Amino acid sequence: MNLNKKNSEKKKFPRSILSVSREEFGLPKDNPDAKSLPLQLLVKDERTLPQDLHGHVFIISAAGSVDSHRLLESNIVFPSSDGSTPFYNGDGIVYRIDFDNLEQGIFLTTRLLKTPCYYADIATARCFPDFKFQNFGIMRMSKKLGTRNQLNTGFLPMKYSEEEGERLLVTWDMGRPYEIDTKTLEIVTPVGWNEEWRAMNPLLSRLPFQPDFCFKLVHSSAHPCFDPKSQQMFTVNCGWSVLTFMAQSMQFIISVIKDFYNSSKIFSNVNRTAYKYIIKRVFKKINVFDHYVDLIAWDGKAQLTRWNITYNDKPLQIKQSIHQMGLTENYVLLVDTGFKFLLEELLPATTNKISKKMKKIVKNLIDYPQLPDTDIYIIKRTDLKPGKKNIEAHKVVIPRETTHFLVDFKNPKQQITLHLAHICAWDTAEWIRDIDFDSTDETTLSNKQPPMYGMTVGPLDISRMGCYVIDAEKAKVVRSDLTSVYQDNSPGQQKEKKEFCQYTWGPALYAYQDNQPTRKFQDIYWSFFGCWEDIFTEQGLKMYAPYKYREVPVPELLELTKKGIKSNLLRLHIKPLESVKEGENRLEIQDIYQFETGYFVNSPQFIPRKAGGDGSSTDGYIMCVVYHGTDEEPDNGNQIWIFDATNLKQGPLCKLWHPQLNFGITVHTTWLPKIAKRTATYNIPVEEDYQDLVAQQPAEIQELFEKEIYPHFKSKNPSV
């Protein structure tokens, strides 16, 4: 390989992220499906493992589906190789890394999250072809059974009592959360009965003149909240009206009808507003399901408590998603996050060239950028009273979009402090697809390697980290601090050309000192994507070139993208408000580690020191997943790195790996000090949960449940 080609290869986004193992590793007594014992991770380069590591790190990821392309006679699959499926469509898999017995070693246990719809997916792929599931963008659906709940995004630790110990939820945006056993990693129970959750929309919940699907589409939050003081878990159940769905393609519909009217010279004097009004009236007539947002509380024992949230005395309408929620001692925050759910995401994979062209035309017509501002709805917890149905929220709008954020639990003087990662012109709901490229491009890009199908598109502007103080009673931002866009941290553009900061491109995931923060945040660790030429698309640039808050001019953006910006891990320090001088910025990037070109960091997790530390927000370690190269590397291009949280810039203290370790793209993490068999009694039996829905179905579906689903859950605990 010549030097230029070798350097070019090093600049590529690591392709190792495109494959994942579905193999389960565990003790036979904990997981009968595990074919191998837990993996004992190896320490790379004879580095020293910190001896005050302890507890257990949980990582979650999507692991493809039963019909994903795979290596022959292997559990290694390539979920996105069809050119249409995003990496976050796939069965959830949990990885647990145990640091509780360092003398014997560090062990990795894995388990697929096997919900009832998981077993339906397996069975229909084998012997019920008419009911088979298929990937449609982020979702996996069966035309007769409904939508998969894939549980592949996040965790929520909960501790209701000392006797029960730590309980753990696994979550996804498009389904009910489930509780798992922290020791066996087995699915135990959903949160709430089927009948306690409302479908997102009837168009995706049943066929015309047919009963409801057994697996209805539920829109919840991937990041519910838990208050250890009041011992309440909060989440949401959201619905979209037909009109809300159609509004996404409203401009296209308007233009088609207008062209028709103009060509026929009928109503040629009708203006745009009139067209829009007419169309809305038409869809209102067929709209049998209005939008809604229900806030849900759960005490870990009984039925869910819910309140319908209103704004300006009307049902609250979320335009994108509530991917994450916030909780303080007196308020619940519902945030319309920049993870949009689109009609174009429901376009199936195609192999026919004509179908691909049509799919591309449709996608480009109805696709649109995420909202450039963040709507935050504030709900008083004192309003959340039993028996009350409707709760009015107050709205605050913060410039620039966000997907992930943190909030201080304390809200002195009714002031809420929010820590937002502004994903500026970075659309994490868009991914690389075959229709993004001409057929001639697919074999010429990236040195004749196919594009990074399934991977999230890269950022198209520099991002900002923000800290905001909100007067909750007045619904008003009273203070805002942002990181600089310039390398020298200067606040504004000078006459001379300045270098843009290379550290804040694509803020992805966070880590912090405490699972259940009941104090002010002082230090937050963030992983950043960087900027990569091979996850750039022309369609993305077309949508975001006119971005409202653009900092980097498009020509310079293209230059930076071609050159590449490295992935990094940093610590953002938030100065206490009382210590900040007038005009001083509260935010300071105090510690950074930039990864080598061609390396990508994800899923950071804070691990506190076992003993002897000061308990501060930097007293511990940061563990993260690191990708490099391809899956043909000895370590499959996957490693686990551990940093000293007080000194990221010195590099990793050690790197862990195993020849059988093969992550897909991991997502969120959590840390627990101990694990144990679950003792909580709350449990919803599968057969009782589905019996009313199944009884309405044809005989074949009833047979499917009786023979292929219910038997896997016969030994579960009795009903709550």
Explained architecture:
This protein is an alpha+beta fold and 720 residues long. Strands 16, 17, 18, 19, 20 and 24 form a 6-stranded mixed β-sheet that branches. Strand 18 (292-298) and strand 19 form a beta hairpin.
Summarize the structure.
This protein is an alpha+beta fold. The protein is built from ten helices and 38 strands.
List keywords for this structure.
disordered N terminus; alpha+beta; 5-stranded antiparallel beta sheet
What order do the helices and strands come in, and which of them pair?
Elements lengths: L2 H8 L9 E2 L17 E2 L1 E2 L12 E7 L6 E2 L5 E3 L13 E7 L8 E6 L3 H11 L6 E4 L2 E4 L3 E2 L6 E5 L8 E5 L6 E3 L6 E4 L34 E3 L4 E8 L2 H6 L2 H15 L7 H15 L5 E7 L6 E7 L2 E2 L9 E3 L3 E6 L16 H14 L6 E8 L9 E3 L1 E6 L2 E6 L7 E8 L41 E8 L4 E7 L24 E5 L11 E6 L9 H7 L9 H10 L4 E7 L12 E8 L4 E10 L11 E9 L9 E7 L9 E4 L8 E7 L13 H10 L3 H11 L11
Parallel strand pairs: 19-24
Antiparallel strand pairs: 1-6, 2-8, 3-37, 4-7, 4-38, 5-6, 7-8, 9-10, 10-11, 12-13, 13-14, 14-15, 16-17, 17-18, 18-19, 19-20, 21-22, 22-23, 23-25, 26-27, 27-28, 28-29, 30-31, 31-32, 32-33, 34-35, 35-36, 36-37
